[in-house]
Design a protein that fits this description.
Layout lengths: L2 E2 L1 E3 L3 H25 L10 H28 L4 H5 L3 H16 L20 H26 L5 H6 L3 H26 L11 H4 L1 E3 L5 E2 L8
Antiparallel strand pairs: 1-4, 2-3
Length: 222
């Protein structure tokens, strides 16, 4: 009996990190919205409760990011290869992938990118994740840590431009992260089926659309 060829893309530590991070970021977005607009939102019962939950979720996301960084840097040593776009990605790959997402996908054309364990993400994903994971998340975390410790870190807060500027910067960065979250969820539905790119984050396995069918493997990589 022939079955779809499968590829083992996401190891267990990566899948745990992904869902822990997703839960933390969603919690940050919702609690942050109540903190910013308390007159319109009262999801967590009180303003103080929303602040406490926001702080805890922020710490979880910051620790989760640190674990992600150390895992890819010192575990499989694939951080740069997986997340940093190559010259070819920037020169041709990003435009080719964008053209697929915005036009070719709706006419049933195949995805030009075929993921492998060492090349999981297409050029657009690499570019986005590079900005998110190496710029946006660190800045959100740093500004959040300063806002959680205004008194003991007063000199650093002043060096960053003062409390008002820091609050505004943190809010704008959070809005950018929220926008990415919605875009990310939408793009995950653009597979062969709406759940084709979501299921692998639960099981680790993704169908290899580039090749034909073969027997289901017993090992991790086919």
């Amino acid at each position: 009996m022939n079955e779809k060829k499968m590829i083992y893309l996401h190891p267990t530590p990566v899948r745990i990190w992904h869902w822990l991070n997703a839960l933390g970021i969603i919690t940050l977005c919702v609690s942050g919205a109540q903190i910013r607009y308390p007159e319109y939102l009262n999801i967590f019962g009180s303003y103080r409760g929303a602040v406490l939950l926001h702080d805890v979720a922020g710490i979880v996301v910051a620790l989760s990011f640190s674990l992600w960084f150390f895992y890819y840097s010192f575990g499989p040593h694939t951080l740069a290869r997986i997340y940093v776009p190559t010259a070819e990605d920037l020169k041709h790959g990003v435009l080719r992938q964008a053209f697929y997402y915005f036009f070719l996908y709706f006419f049933g054309h195949p995805n030009p990118h075929h993921p492998t364990p060492d090349n999981k993400f297409n050029p657009m994903q690499k570019s986005a994740y590079l900005a998110i994971m190496f710029v946006l998340v660190p800045l959100v975390s740093l500004s959040g840590i300063l806002l959680m410790n205004v008194s003991p870190l007063r000199e650093l807060v002043l060096a960053a431009g003062g409390l008002k500027l820091l609050v505004g910067l943190h809010f704008l960065l959070a809005c950018s992260l929220t926008a990415f979250l919605f875009t990310h969820v939408y793009l995950t539905t653009l597979g062969k089926t709406p759940t084709a790119h979501i299921t692998p984050m639960w099981t680790g396995w993704e169908e290899d659309e580039e090749h034909g069918t073969t027997e289901q493997p017993s090992g991790h990589r086919v």
